[in-house]
Specification:
Number of helices: 0
Order of helices and strands: EEEEEEEEEEEEEEEEEEE
Structural class: mainly beta
Largest sheet: 8 strands, antiparallel
Helix content: under 10%
Oligomer: single chain
CATH topology of the domain at 79-272: Jelly Rolls
CATH class of the domain at 79-272: Mainly Beta
Strand content: 25-35%
Length: about 325
């Protein structure tokens, strides 16, 4: 049997279905990466530089030095320090050097000598054995203490205490200008022309101890100091001047010496014209400066240039050759 299948025409398209419900919104995505920095702006313009100031004036040229001009130091116009004995030297030496403005010859008598066994300053002192020992200094106008201020000072160390001549300008039987003596362990005496002594009662002295003694005249009155403390004065005093009298150290009178010192003396200084101490003071803790020494002075200077130092006042009197002249105080008139 033959099956005949015949296809009929296509039917019409069916109507569209309705839209489905919108789905829910999805979750927010993560933040994107930060963008890169923008390009740097252009640098500003550099300001205009200020103008250069005017150059200062050039200083004047200093004086040219002289290769071979000698430098000299001259002491003039000052007799303030009349005697200055440091008592320095070799052991057993009998040479005593005066370092005053006008150095004097000091002569040793008996067994007076330099000794390194004791000293207040430096390495030695003057030693006296109490039997005929003393030092003698010839008369000089700058040892005349009449009608002037003055200071006599020294350090002394006793081996034996008693009546002892320490420092005098005294001709026995003729003239007593001034004399310093120990009377006993508690009495120091300054004797003078009218023979009325000035006595200082002091704390009891001991052997083997250094003592500073000072005798100061100010305005015609004398004071006595021990270790910087005043124990007598000011008391009016008349001081004589016999041109035949020597200074004697370590005994009383030069022509008939007596009352000899058994002990040591160091750093003796006599200053004429100056009362160095007028109230209690502290004695120097070192040796005195030499009266004729000078400090550090310029190697190049102009005439009239002045240098002040603890050793004195220096004035340049010549530039070539270079000469400095020394004064104790500022001079009113300078001799160039």
């Amino acid at each position: 049997m033959i099956n005949l299948n015949v296809t009929g025409p296509q039917g019409a398209q069916g109507a569209s279905g309705s839209q489905g419900v919108q789905g829910a919104q999805g979750t927010q995505g993560a933040n994107g990466a930060a963008g890169s920095n923008g390009a740097q702006g252009h640098q500003g313009y550099i300001g205009t530089s200020g103008s250069v100031g005017t150059q200062g004036f050039q200083g004047s040229t200093g004086n040219s030095g002289s290769d071979s001009a000698p430098v000299t130091y001259e002491t003039i116009g000052d007799s303030s320090v009349s005697l200055l004995l440091h008592m320095e030297g070799a052991n057993d030496s009998t040479t005593f050097t005066d370092n005053s403005y006008s150095p004097k010859t000091v002569t040793a008598f008996g067994n007076a000598k330099v000794s390194t066994s004791a000293s207040k300053f430096g390495s030695s002192a003057a030693a006296f054995d109490g039997t005929g020992d003393y030092l003698r200094v010839p008369y000089s106008a700058d040892l005349n203490l009449a009608s002037t201020d003055f200071t006599i000072e020294f350090w002394v160390n006793f081996n034996v205490l008693g009546v002892i001549g320490l420092f005098s300008k005294h001709t026995s039987g003729t003239a007593l200008d001034y004399e310093i003596a120990l009377i006993n362990s508690t009495t120091i005496r300054f004797n003078k022309s009218n023979l009325t002594p000035i006595d200082a009662t002091v704390p009891a002295l001991s052997t083997g101890t250094w003592y500073h003694m000072a005798f100061v005249s100010s305005g015609g009155s004398v004071s006595i100091y021990l270790n910087g403390t005043r124990y007598a004065g000011p008391t009016a005093a008349t001081i004589g001047n016999s041109v035949t009298s020597y200074i004697v150290i370590g005994a009383s009178s030069w022509n008939s010496p007596t009352a000899f010192l058994n002990g040591y003396m160091d750093e003796i200084r006599l200053t004429k014209g100056t009362a160095r101490y007028t109230s209690n003071f502290t004695p120097s803790a070192s040796a005195f400066s030499n009266a004729n020494e000078y400090g550090s002075l310029p190697a190049i200077a102009s005439v009239g240039q002045t240098v002040y130092s603890s050793a004195g006042i220096y004035v340049c009197s010549s530039a070539s050759p270079l000469v400095w002249k020394k004064y104790a105080v500022s001079p009113s008139t300078i001799t160039l």
